[in-house]
Design brief:
Number of domains: 2
CATH class of the largest domain: Alpha Beta
Largest sheet: 5 strands, parallel
Shape: globular
CATH superfamily of the largest domain: Metal-dependent hydrolases
Structural class: alpha/beta
Number of helices: 14
CATH architecture of the largest domain: Alpha-Beta Barrel
Radius of gyration: 22 Å
Distance between the termini: 53 Å
Helix content: 25-40%
Low-confidence stretches: 1-10
């Protein structure tokens, strides 16, 4: 392990800040004092003595913990228009990315796109992102090198975790060069081991190698597992056992896990229990998986989602990710935690509050990050959005937001209605009381 590559810049927390008149999810209107990067106190608005520090007036804003993105592919961002997916499925996405390797996966191209999408992530409320980065034949470790260099320069704005995404195969004689590339990525300084075992002819063997390599390197592991509605592709239970054999309990993540949702109830229950025992976190990615799974079926189309409810009942931490940002795997991807939360409400039948936890506190737990939010002692990674409560925030996704990282204001987006359509309609109906759907701007 190259110890120099593990060096991280020291965060520079704000000396002091006061977030005034903020509304918490349960409706309390409070003043939040931030000191040394953490929340020092939360008191009823106006009840505390004046405190030194930068003051931010958050009247009409809902104050939440900042969002965390547990599953992204930043090195692919914004490639959808340049390399379209002709079939809309996984195979088409992989073909499009092979075309992209010839011109778009250079240091300059990756850097430009990653910096753009990172800025958008922070603007929308993310202060932590885990990104899987293609690391394979044809491009080697160039993406990892770029991402690690960027990670170490943006630490004051967000936590950026990097996992190399291995190609096929990693097993046998044919996989020797891919295994060597992954070991090079470890030396460069990745934060965890990634991979896509189902692309290998021997997926269980590939999964075991990737878990063992993570343990050997002393890093966490996050694998793309069972990303298909085909119930015969199912290595999730084996992954839980392998995590325990390698002593990675609490440091392992299973992403996608789509085929779990196609199993019989007793298999789902048994597997969920195995994951809970191994303390494996699960990340569901509703938009991309709903978009890309079930293609070619005209009736009884399966839902491309894991068994969220059963996993939760077993005590598994289930986070929700945005996955792709306008790339060949998903031409959409608004880069917005409220979009991901809304899709989790619609697709996984979560409440708005639970869906928000899936993109914030549960995501941070899966990522191994410290507690954050408007609570005493928590890191002051905070997001204020113009809304009355969490359901309104998730449903409306108002772009008028403040984003704080360790108490420092890192993004402020104002939305101004040049022509107020709500007021215009009200003026035309003077005898009808029309409720204001959002806080006054």
């Amino acid at each position: 392990m190259n110890e120099a590559s593990r060096t991280r810049p020291v965060l520079q927390p704000a000396e002091a800040a006061v977030l005034e008149e903020a509304t918490l999810p349960l409706g309390e209107v409070v003043d939040v004092l931030v000191a040394d990067g953490r929340v020092a106190s939360v008191v009823e608005h106006g009840a505390s003595a004046p405190s030194p520090g930068t003051r931010h007036a958050l009247g009409s804003y809902l104050l939440l913990q900042a969002a965390a993105e547990p599953h992204a592919h930043l090195d692919k961002a914004f490639l959808a228009g340049r390399f379209p997916n002709s079939t809309g499925d996984l195979a088409g996405a992989f073909d499009a990315m092979e075309r992209a390797y010839q011109s778009a996966m250079t240091r300059a191209d990756i850097s430009k796109r990653v910096l753009s999408v990172l800025g958008l992530n922070v603007q929308r409320g993310y202060t932590a992102i885990r990104s899987h980065v293609n690391c394979e034949r044809g491009i080697g470790t160039v993406g990892v090198e770029v991402m690690c260099a960027i990670r170490d320069r943006v630490a004051d704005a967000l936590d950026l975790q990097i996992a190399p995404l291995a190609s096929k195969p990693v097993t046998g004689i044919a996989g020797a060069d891919q295994r060597a590339i992954l070991r090079d990525a470890v030396e460069i300084g990745v934060d965890l081991m990634g991979g896509f075992p189902q692309a290998d002819e021997r997926p269980i063997e590939a999964m075991r190698f990737l878990v063992a390599l993570a343990a050997e390197a002393g890093v966490a592991v996050d694998l793309h597992l069972d990303e298909t509605t085909d119930p015969d592709m199912f290595v999730l239970g084996e992954f839980a056992a392998e995590v325990q054999r390698n002593g990675l309990e609490g440091r392992a993540t299973a992403s996608h896990c789509v085929s779990l949702g196609q199993q019989d109830p007793e298999v789902i229950t048994r597997t969920a229990d195995q994951l809970a025992e191994a303390r494996v976190g699960v990340v569901t990615n509703p938009q991309t998986n709903l978009l890309i799974q079930g293609r070619g079926m005209e009736t009884r189309v399966p839902r491309g989602l894991t068994a969220v409810a059963a996993l939760r009942r077993a005590g598994v931490v289930v986070a929700a990710g945005g996955d792709n940002r306008r790339d060949p795997f998903n031409p959409l991807g608004r880069v917005d935690p409220f979009e991901t939360a809304a899709l989790a409400v619609a697709a996984a039948h979560l409440s708005a509050e639970d869906a928000w936890r899936a993109v914030s506190s549960y995501a941070r737990e899966v990522m191994g990050l410290p507690r954050a939010g408007p609570e005493v002692g928590a890191r002051a990674d905070l997001l204020a959005i113009r809304a009355h409560d969490v359901p309104e925030a998730v449903a409306g996704a108002d772009l008028d937001r403040w984003v704080f990282r360790c108490g420092n204001l890192v993004a402020r987006t104002r939305v101004v209605d040049e022509v107020d359509a709500c007021r215009l309609i009200e003026e035309r109906c003077p005898d009808v009381r029309v409720p204001d759907p959002s806080p006054a701007r």
